[in-house]
Structure formats: structure tokens, C-alpha cells
Amino acid sequence: MEKIVILTGAGISAESGLITFRDEGGLWAQHRIEDVATPEGFARDPALVQGFYNARRVQAAKVHPNAAHQALARLQSEWPGDVVIVTQNVDNLHEAGGAEDVIHMHGSLDRALCATCGHRWAAPPEMAVGEPCPTCAEPTARPDVVWFGEMPYHMDEIYSHLSSASIFAAIGTSGQVYPAAAFVHEAQTAGSQTLEINLEPTMGASVFDDRLVGKATETVPQWVDRLLRQTD
Ligand code: OAD
After folding, report:
1. Contact predicate 179/152, CB 8 Å
2. Ligand 1 binding pocket mutation candidate from 56, 104, 148, 177 (most atoms within 8 A of CB)
3. One domain, residues 171 and 211
4. What is each CA distance from 203 to 84, 115, 157, 206, 230, in whole angstroms?
5. How many structural domains compose the chain?
6. In terms of DSSP bridges, do strands 141-145 and 107-114 run parallel, antiparallel, or are they unpaired?
7. Could you tell me the CATH number of the domain that includes residue 97?
8. Are residues 34 and 133 in the same domain?
9. Using 50, 70 and 90 to split pLDDT, how confident is the model at 74?
10. Residue 106 annotated in active site
11. Which atom number of ligand 1 is nearest to the Cα of residue 147?
12. How much distance in Å is there from the Cα of 215 to the middle of ligand 1?
């Protein structure tokens, strides 16, 4: 049966109450990317960076999955083929909404990473600067999130899924950050039908075969209903 690969971005969590990066008043209007989302920024001012991610972790712990996260989980359980969810989001709202095996290509707020030995563990709600690694004891704990200039996670696995996808949907992402922004081309090369679901058409919208424009909590459940009706 047909495989569906779904890429999600900050827009899917917006109606849960997490602000996006590039919408008006978004995170990148309030913080400089090079200060809080690069290895160089962390080396310069680890307290600033830990504070930024601590605030996001606290916020993410307060919010709940919305109808779009839940609809994707339903699609995963009811679609007769594979449904692979790849997210750029560092929140855990897909899992909280019931989704399984979510691929977090930009890491996860609830994990910590040792910059010295690569060990990973559950992040406390507030990470402190110089926190020692539980394995090597070096004071180099950092959030397990991917920063600009670093390689996103699970890329081989993602490209392998894209190469066998029949349907590819990008949901709530502005398509401005690579490599995720190029997944639509990978999927098209593999012969997938491609769909963009977003509040408004993005700059790259014309690349997709189809578009659904509107709030994720409305458009995603409608799309899932339509797909599942085909299988009746
Ligand atoms: P952006 O903030 O760039 O884009 C969010 C998209 O969601 C925009 O196109 C909005 O129009 C759309 N949107 C907002 N509210 C929506 C809603 N209720 N329903 C549907 N769509 C909605 O976020 P991302 O594309 O996820 O990376 O950003 C990609 C990466 O850039 C992030 O993972 C992060 C960031 O810098 C790193 O930090 C490495």
C-alpha cells in the first residue's frame, strides 16, 4: 500500500500555543539566530543559549497537542500503508497526540547531549551552564537540538523514506531551511504526489502539485478524512 511521508514545521504547533520562527513576532524576530541557534553562539554565551532553550522547554511542557497532531496520529493508525512523520519541531506534540516513531530531524527539547562524548540523556526542565555529562563528566552538556551549521539527524533514513513515498505532504513549514526545504524535490523525483498544507502559500508553494490553505487544525483533519475515505 502507498507510503505517505509527512514533513511538519512550527505551524502545526502554532495553534497549541507555541510561537513559530518566521511569522510576525516569531522567535527570529525576538532573537538573533547566530546568538541562540549556532555552535558559535553557544561557545560565546552558553547562558544565553541555555536560557533560550529552557524557556522553550518550559513553554512546550505547558501546551497540548491539537487536532492536526491528532489527525496525523489517526492517519498513522488507520492508513493501510506506512505513514512516516518527519518533524523539524523540537516539541513532543506529535507523540503526545498519539503518533509513533516520529523522526525529529532537528532534535528534541527533552534531550540533552554531551558536546564532548556524544552521550544523550533526558534533559531536566532547566539545563544549567557547565552541567556535567553523566558519562564522561565533562561540563559540556547542551540541548540536543540541531543548530545552523550542524547536520540534521536521521538524514539517510529520511531520504530512504522519500525515495519510496507515494504521497509527500509538508505541513506548517515555511520551506526556508535546508535540507528539509528540498524534500519536496526528492519526493517528486521518486514520483510522489506532493501537497503543501499551510496557513498561506509559501514562497515555494508552486513547486507542490497541490495546496491546502488554512489553519492546520482545520485543513489537516479534512485532508486525513479525505485520504481515509479512499480506503473504505
Ligand atoms: P517557520 O516559522 O519558518 O514557518 C512556519 C510556517 O507555518 C509559516 O509558513 C506559517 O505561515 C505557517 N503557519 C503558522 N501558523 C499556522 C497554522 N495555524 N496552520 C498552518 N500553518 C501555519 O517554521 P519552520 O518552517 O518550522 O530550525 O522553520 C524551520 C526551521 O527554522 C526550524 O526547525 C528551526 C528554524 O530556524 C532550527 O532552529 C535549526
Report:
1. yes
2. 177
3. yes
4. 25, 35, 27, 8, 30
5. 2
6. antiparallel
7. 3.40.50.1220
8. yes
9. very high
10. yes
11. 39
12. 13
